[in-house]
Amino acid sequence: MGRGIKGSELLPFTLQFLRGRWFALFASFLIMAGAGATYLFGTYSKEIKATLDYDQTTLNLLGFSKDLGANVGVFSGLIAEVTPTWFVLLVGAALNFGGYFMIWLAVTGRIAKPKVWQMCIYICIGANSQNFANTGALVTSVKNFPESRGSMLGLLKGYTGLSGAVMTQIYLAVYGNDSKSLILLIGWLPAAISVIFVYTIRTMKPVRHPNEIRVFYQFLSASILLAVFLMLITLTEKLVTFSKAAYAGAATVVCFLVFSPLFISVREELLIWNMQKHPIGSPMEITVDKSTPEIVESKQVVSMPGSPKQGDEKVEKSCFLTICDRPERGEDYTILQALTSLDMWVLFLATFCGLGASLTAVDNLGQIGESLGYPNKTVTSFVSLVSIWNFFGRVFSGFVSETLIVKYKVPRPLMMTLVLLLACIGYVLVAFPMPGSLYVASIIIGFSFGAQLPLIFAIISELFGLKYYSTLFNCGQLASPLGSYIFNVKLTGFLYDREAMKDLAKKGLTRSSVKALTCIGSHCYRLPFIILTFVTFFGALTSLILVVRTRNYYRSDIYKKFRENAESL
Nodulin-like domain: which residues (predicted)? Predict the structure, then answer.
């Protein structure tokens, strides 16, 4: 399999590579690496608060609008059901640039000061673009590699988790320490990536790969190397003053590490190329389907899961008539069957508690650091730590839960229970801070926040099938913005402002006496995070219900049908 390619074969191989599954996967990594701009809100939110004279409740309302846009992906899912992937990615690119560009214009004073509801719309539009990236890249990759979906989801969402730290290094190299310019960067860079790879990502026939999981562990190694470098360079930048050239050098290394999975993709496509030219041990004639550069076994009809078999003349009923006629777990549910399922509602409640509390913690991290007296550079490092450990949480939950399912038949929802219990520890450290404890809290909150998303997405794909996965996985995270609104805007923002007003009253001042309403001290966030701890613990108990309900299903071979329907190399 180590054979190279001749000069005359270079062009045909390049065309096959650019149209193959492995290059599409690499392109998905890049798109997802640019789809996490919402996690940088803690970095630039203070600029919005200062330049537009917002109090904490108003800023948290913006944070909720961001979370609403980032998690209401039903529209992108429904659009993906009826349009090609390239259209989904283009719409996402337009929304990303349009939303964040308007915020940048407002913060830099290039347009008249927008009303609060207008800013909410701008940030909602910009954040909603990541759903189009998720639907275009993530859903397509899961369908292309169905047997490795846990690892796949962990990797893809892991790159999203790292995107905050990646874009921070790029913005420091290009714009310097100007957080207003960061808003401009997260407007144009993710949009440009989606446009460049718009025709690369599409659904292809799954092909049985003898060492697929080994390849994914190699991708994992590359991503961990990137994460470790980002963590080291982020901590170094807090201890040492970097020059413009040093920032440029760090950004260059980051870009090289982001592109390193390309070499693995080239090697795997070269394996396919050599197998097509020199089939080994195969009794059947092997031909190449020119429309998709994967190997196709002749004289064999392959039916995808969820697609009707030849000669099957079964008439489909209306989706409204089949709501109560639910299939077995793992089969393809219709959208209404899934949305009215008790399993989906239990998952919805656990997501409401878990992700709602996590989003609240992440959005307020900058203000938490400020209230505890940490300098601005240190607060920025907290945000970067959340981004990096967000990545570790995502890949850990994806790969570890996949291993536990395949080897030990452990239900994936049990992993979610453990993650939510871990998050409770992080919230307690914020509620009762000690010197330096916010560093530990940032790591725990980032890790537990990141770990939840791949688990939720994988559980939905396993319980309700892949036929309508584009819509269902977006429906599954609708609970997140609802939880964010209640816990962030109505709870945390309100209690923070109340404590800040008490501090003003002690000084004999009124709200009109100060430009920004700021609270300093450990009491500012104590009560909100005590409440978040209990809410998250309730979410962990709720997820245990799903563990009990699905334990028999996860004891079975949940990937059997995908092995039977995939082609082999």
Answer: 21-266
> What DSSP state is assigned to residue 136?
I
For the chain, what percentages of helix, strand and coil (3-state, to nearest 5) are there?
Answer: 75, 0, 25
pLDDT computed for residue 300 by the predictor? 38
Per-residue pLDDT reduced to its tens digit, 416-474: 999 999 999 999 999 999 988 998 999 999 999 999 989 999 999 999 998 899 889 88
- Give the integer Cα–Cα distance in Å for 381 and 522: 19
Domain coordinates of the chain in residue numbers? 19-274, 326-568
Judge whether 239 and 261 are in contact, CB under 8 Å: no
Q: Which CATH architecture has domain 326-568?
A: Up-down Bundle (1.20)
The DSSP annotation for 287-342 comes to EE-TTS-SEEETT-----TTSPPTT--PPPPPTTTTSSS---TTS---HHHHHT-H
Residue 290 confidence (pLDDT) above 50: no
- Give the pLDDT confidence of 221-248 residue by residue, as tens digits: 999 999 999 889 988 887 888 888 999 9
Task: Collect all residues with Cβ–Cβ distance below 8 Å to 143 and sequence separation of at least 6.
Answer: 203, 206, 466, 469
Condensed to tens digits (0 to 9), the pLDDT of residues 148-193 reads 888 888 999 889 878 888 998 998 898 887 778 889 999 999 999 9
C-alpha of 305 from chain center: 26
As a whole number, mean pLDDT of residues 25-42 equals 88
Amino acid at 420: L
pLDDT tens sequence across 309-346? 444 444 555 555 566 677 888 888 988 889 999 999 99
The rounded mean pLDDT for the chain is: 85
Query: Do 326-568 and 19-274 have the same topology in CATH?
Result: yes
Tell if the pTM clears 0.85, that is, is over it. no
Burial 182-215 (b: 16+ CB within 10 A, else e): bbbbbbebbbebbbebbebbbbbbbbebeebbeb
Tell me if 210 sits within 8 A of 32, measured CB to CB: no
The highest-level CATH class for domain 19-274 is: mainly alpha
Q: Please name the helix (run of DSSP H) or strand (run of DSSP E) that holds residue 185, with its range, or none.
A: helix 179-196
Question: Would you call 82 exposed, middle or buried from its count of C-beta atoms within 10 A (0-12, 13-18, 19+)?
Answer: exposed
Secondary structure of 399-417 in HEC code, one letter for each residue: HHHHHHHHHHCCCHHHHHH
DSSP per residue, 21-34? HHHHHHHHHHHHHT
Query: For 207, which DSSP code?
Result: E
Phi and psi (nearest 5°) for 295? -75, 135
Q: Could you tell me where the DSSP H helices lie in 34-178?
A: 41-51, 56-71, 74-82, 85-107, 116-133, 140-144, 149-175
Report yes or no: 50 and 516 within 8 Å, Cβ to Cβ: yes
Task: Return d(Cα 534, Cα 42) in angstroms, integer.
Answer: 24
In 3D space, the residue among 565, 1, 568 whose CA is nearest the CA of residue 286 turns out to be 568
Alpha carbon distances (Å) from 490 to 56, 58, 269, 483, 549: 11, 11, 52, 10, 33
pLDDT of residue 305: 43
- 81: tokens are 């059901």
Q: Taking 60 as the threshold, does the pLDDT of residue 293 lie above it?
A: no
